[in-house]
Amino acid sequence: MFYRLPIPRMSTSAPQGHTWTQRVKKEDEEEDPLDQLISRSGCAASHFAVQECMAQHQDWRQCQPQVQAFKDCMSEQQLRRREELQRRKEQASAHH
């Protein structure tokens, strides 16, 4: 289960802070495609850490270690995915 955080609203007036809130997924809701992607990536724990930090601090600047860890995890996952696709492509062309 993931918590969906709304995108903070920007305004031209003086900053009022972010409106980060946690929303719990209901049983009858379909899982969000982004949540499915994150779950399959193996980076769900670091994504959750970012969400927890943002809910607690409501300031992304205080959550940079968590953001960086999530970014690193997703980058590693994308690299592994690219390597796997390249391997499959090479195997397919070797069999033809």
UniProtKB/TrEMBL annotation:
Organism field: Theropithecus gelada (Gelada baboon)
PROSITE patterns in UniProt: CHCH (PS51808)
Coiled coil: none
Record key words, sorted: Disulfide bond, Mitochondrion
Pfam family, one: CHCH
Annotated localization: Mitochondrion
GO biological process entries: mitochondrial respiratory chain complex IV assembly
Residue ranges with Polar residues bias: 10-22
Domain of life: Eukaryota
Name of the protein in its database record: Cytochrome c oxidase assembly factor 4 homolog, mitochondrial
